[in-house]
Amino acid sequence: MRRLGIAVLVVVGLVVGASCTYKDEVPGNLETKAGEMIDKLADHEWDDVREEFDDDLRDLISEKRLEDTWNDVVDDEGAYQTRGEPKRVRPATAQTKKDILFFDVPLQFGRGGKKARISFHRDGKIASLSIAAA
Asked: pTM value?
């Protein structure tokens, strides 16, 4: 149970596929918040990240599991180096709820690039967080 997939940080009940850039009104500057959450992961501020999870995600992902999974990604991909700017995306799934907003954040590790996908409820709470191939 050390990890479910080589590049998965957290995946919770949302099926996402290919995406395209998507623009409309983003409440509370969630693009900025998406980047801040990656910065907090890189700084090992696990509790601060979990505080932003919705209740379901917080119940599912402990601080220890979040830490272990981030460390697994770093072990596999090399040291975290930097991130790019978050971009709003619209997953190509018919089931996606329109009250969930998705952002991709490019990540650079020692052995290559990845992307984080963070989804938020419109109230700003994190609904899901994952790291996958770029």
From this structure: 0.79
